[in-house]
Amino acid sequence: MDTSNWDWEKGVKVISKINDCDAETEWLTEPYASPDGEKVAVLAKTEEGFDVCVNAKAWGQTFDNAWYPRFSPDGRLTCVASTDMEWTLAVDGEPWPETYGYIWNTMFSEKGDVIAAAIQQDGTYGMAINGEQVGELYETASEFTLSADGKRTAAVVQVQSMDAADIFTFQQGCYSVAVDGQAWDIKVVNAWTPTFSPDGSRVAAQMRSSLYDYTIIVDGTPWSKNFAMVWDPCFNPKTGTVVAPVRMAGKWGMAENEQVIWDPVYFQLWEQKFSPDGNNLYAICAPQYGRWTVVHNNNTWNVLVNTMLTDLTVSPDGQRAAAAAKEKDKWTIMADDALWPQWYDMVWTPVFSPDSKHIATKVEKPGKKLTVAIDGKHYKEDFTHCWEPVFSPDSQKVLIRGVQGGKFKRIVAKVNEF
After folding, report:
1. Which InterPro entries match (predicted)?
2. Is 221 inside any structural domain?
3. Which domain holds residue 376?
């Protein structure tokens, strides 16, 4: 997401009252903020149906139903909408020309120039990009995925029909992965999490080859080795190799192109992520039963939490990592083998500054008070609604989007103000 052309002048800007709309409304939904903080949207129930208000101005487009409003990275507002029992996606008030039996799971390319969604038509399933169906539709489809550039799609699809409780056909393999709407030739018992390489040219997925054997399948070809279980694969952005956590003899390790590179010594291992240069591999692990930390190039951190560790994030320079950590019923951020001193009722995915020096996150304080914290110190003001923070390109400022007293505010604060 390119933030270089956003307004980064320090200060507070009141965008709109979230309960205002220039149309006659019966009720409004919760607000949704654009990435740059210049827009706030609500779905509006009118006497005729549903409309959408952006900065208190209605689209003027009435639908029988509307839901799932989402802003694209380039600032366009989308929502799933229906008219006369047909569903489509509306983008800035303009519905896609094609309608479907149902549509859901809006997805965006990194830049936001491509919008995709899952579709159902006449009982068959697939994907559409910018309003056009991609390839074939299938009896069932799930795990919908869009490449980073938005040019390609992938999903797990059913390629073999079977009757209810037909366990024999199921065990022979009824599923595959469809890339750009075309299924791979192979049939498997199950498949999950199709994952694109960073350039979008390749796809890897989890695969269940029998009732008891699991492996990774890459571009339609399975690894030759099976494991007791596997988790999501990912591609090394430098070498193109595929790594995935694998379970062997009751413990978890890491495999690369089917060869085990981290011995199976962990009680759990997942959410692995490479640094942008591909030289550092991080993951969330349980070196002890019920105790969680981060492992970096097969070296575990010392700090542990006892309930949960999730949303692992790697810094742009690849030298740091952070994750949301839960100890009993409180949350904080685990970063660089240490925990932030402040604990919260909830924290969200950590965000690194472009220079990798700072970490920010949305947090919830006692009393359902929401705000933003940077490097363990939270902002001086609280909000009833708040969205994840965004750093300026020079890493010196942070964008805070929040609602106070019914007003949606766009705040640009200096990092050293925290």
Report:
1. 6-blade_b-propeller_TolB-like, WD40/YVTN_repeat-like_dom_sf
2. no
3. 310-319+337-418
